[in-house]
What does this fold into?
Amino acid sequence: MSGGENGNGLVRALIPGPEGLEALVREAAALFTQISTEAKDLPLVSQASLPDVKRRLAQFDFAKPTAKTELLTWTTRQMAELELHLSDPHYFGVFNPNPSAMGVVGDFLASAFNSQLASAVSSPFGVLVEDHLIAYFSQFLGFAVPGSGGIFTGGGTEANYTAVLCALTEKFPDFEKRGLMGMTSLPRIYVSTETHHSILKAAKMVGLGLDAVVEIPVTADHVMDVAQLRARLAADAANGMKPFLVVGTFGTTSAGMIEPLAEIAGAAKEYQCWFHVDAAWGGAACLLPELEESFAPCAQADSLTLDAHKWLNVPMTAGMFFSRRLQSLDNAFRVTVSPYMPIESDDADRVIPPYHRSMAWSRRLTGLKLFLSLASVGVDGYRTVLRHQIAMGRELRSLLERGGWKLESHSPLPVVCFSDPKGAEAPAIAAAVAKTGKAWVTTTQLTAHGCTVLRAGISNAVTEKWHLEELVAYLNSARESLEA
It folds into this structure.
């Protein structure tokens, strides 16, 4: 065989064309179904050690190709045996829901077409799909006002980082050109001790440092103490510092609490701060009319984060950032037009290139999985799913109380923090439950209490009452074994 023929064979092996891709996807789907069925008896969490996983991977030195069927079978089995089964209805960890089927298909189509969302020239459908979704959710978030808009992000961390950049650019006129060198006073960000730590990461990444973040204590209900926020804002302003960003949370990570957003917004406005709401998880509740009153204060925010890959059940990752002033995104990210980028048309329908309004330049079509999921079941379908999980949260609280557990938080959202009133340590209980391989709960520290508690979150659309009853039975058994 000539070098050219061999080269063509290798190209076809790597890029087999539509028919070859279809065969591979069919085979992968069949293997996923087969091995997932076989894996029902496997532990929810693998008991394998990291050295064991490394030994399994060591056979691949990539010197020679591996047959596709053999490779797909091996890989699917490793994932079934070694990955934490996040899609299992007995998973009660942080927000990793079972993904919607249309979401998975959306990810496949985005990958197969390899859509490039830097510009509407290369992806007019993709860019406008995401714009359509941003506009749709803006109606429920209170952001459907002239001049508003948003962008899809790689997740909540990128969205929160975007909020910090927008706030800096808006509140420090010289920041866009001179950066930190143009600041004449020390900038300050205000969060509660229950705020997601991505804000701390953002402070480091933009060069402000951790000392720029002021953590406000929380009340006994695990939400920001607004009186202390106001006191700290006043003290910092009097000492020549520059408060510029206040962050409130709708659905805290640890306890699922809704902070007093209207009061926080008032304090932020008084000191001319940018007000950002992190609703990465809880933000899906904006679709529920019965929670409209709780969600209404979000309309006072300058920006908001919402993750579709959390409570909207699409595959990782899909974040959204909403801004009341779309111009703030242009100010934060836009650079001189690059000569290597396609030239946008000058007509009235011209779309600002997404790379002008986000951290990313080249980017996949993130929003397609949400578009297909929402379009396939409609907003009422999503409401049914969300209401079911909220009902399961209430049911879990009831089961825990009847089982003699102490509830440590009270949220309308399906996150439950609890402890053993007799003193069995939360990490030991969580470890004992994980060791059964039958269920998964986590622990967290609630800063108001200063102690570690157990945490169970319901973000799986198929979790039913009997799954909760089994979880409580595992918890009771773990507690009894530790107390013996």
Notes: The radius of gyration is 25 Å. The chain has a mean pLDDT of 92. The first helix runs from residue 3 to 14. The first strand starts at residue 91 and ends at 92.
